[in-house]
Amino acid sequence: QVQLVESGGGSVQAGGSLRLSCVSSEYRYCMGWFRQTPGKEREEVATLDGYSTSSYADSVKGRFTISRDGFKKELYLQMNSLKPEDTAVYYCAASERGPCSEPYMNYWGKGTLVTVSS
User: Is the CB of residue 44 less than 8 Å from the CB of residue 118?
Assistant: First the structure.
């Protein structure tokens, strides 16, 4: 069973930055970040496949950057110019194969809370 552990969440003022990390117990082809706020469906933030092809939600393009380490078992999300609407629980997810989108992610972390105040 693949285990994913997120870290790096916290509270920040609007315009600030945070860097999320996710450590996976095993390599998986697809990894990504998703987020959810109370009363809303979980949404895709950014994904990255084994060929380093990335995908971003329109709401975070130009502000967030997803990356993986050289051994591809650690995933990062650099979040800049944060907005109050970025407030959510952020989840790391992974899958053995693409497409790298939520329905195909079969391993999930427990999440880390990001709070952005205005």
Answer: no
